[in-house]
Specification:
It comes from Bifidobacterium longum (strain NCC 2705). This is Possible WhiB-like transcription factor. Helices cover 60% and strands 0% of the residues. It is mainly alpha-helical.
Length: 158
């Protein structure tokens, strides 16, 4: 990332795993790194600019301005509903979007909230699916927590 933000001084080997597309094989460690990245973004002085940049370049991975992809899409959708014209060829678009984000911090909070709820729902559905699969294969009903041998990962990031 070329903006001078809080992440700028992290070595690439760390920042690629925290904000970038690299995933560690250990899901829990990866989750902790992403969560730490989000916390760092929250205190970043160029957060709005970073988020606008991430939206404009349409990066499908990573964290920009403390938000993962789906939450960034939500911010763009809200901005467009409020009249923002998304045109990647317009050299002023990124600046305009950053200004809109700075002036409307509640849309970032709303996008985070929505993403948080969505992830919780996905996790609940995944647990139920695993439980159903276990129940089908054993013919016995077990409590959902007993159906998996790993503790549930609260992968909400926020
Ligand atoms: S908002 Fe986060 S990813 Fe963006 S420059 Fe700041 S610390 Fe880096």
């Amino acid at each position: 990332m070329f903006l001078k933000g809080e992440c700028a001084d992290f070595p690439d080997s760390w920042s690629d795993r925290m904000w970038g597309p690299d995933d560690l094989p250990n899901r829990r460690t990866q989750y902790e790194l992403r969560r730490a990245a989000v916390r760092i973004c929250e205190a970043c002085p160029v957060r709005a600019e970073c988020l606008a940049f991430g939206i404009m370049v349409r990066d499908q991975y990573g964290i920009y301005g403390g938000l993962p992809l789906r939450a960034r899409r939500q911010v763009l959708k809200t901005a467009q509903e409020a009249g923002f014209r998304f045109d990647p060829d317009d050299p002023t678009a990124e600046q305009r979007l950053a200004r809109f984000i700075r002036e409307n911090p509640e849309i970032v909070a709303a996008a985070r909230e929505r993403e948080c709820k969505r992830r919780k729902t996905e996790q609940r559905n995944a647990r139920q699916q695993r439980w159903r699969a276990t129940t089908r294969s054993t013919g016995k009903a077990k409590a959902p927590a007993a159906a998996t041998h790993t503790p549930p990962l609260q992968d909400t990031l926020f």
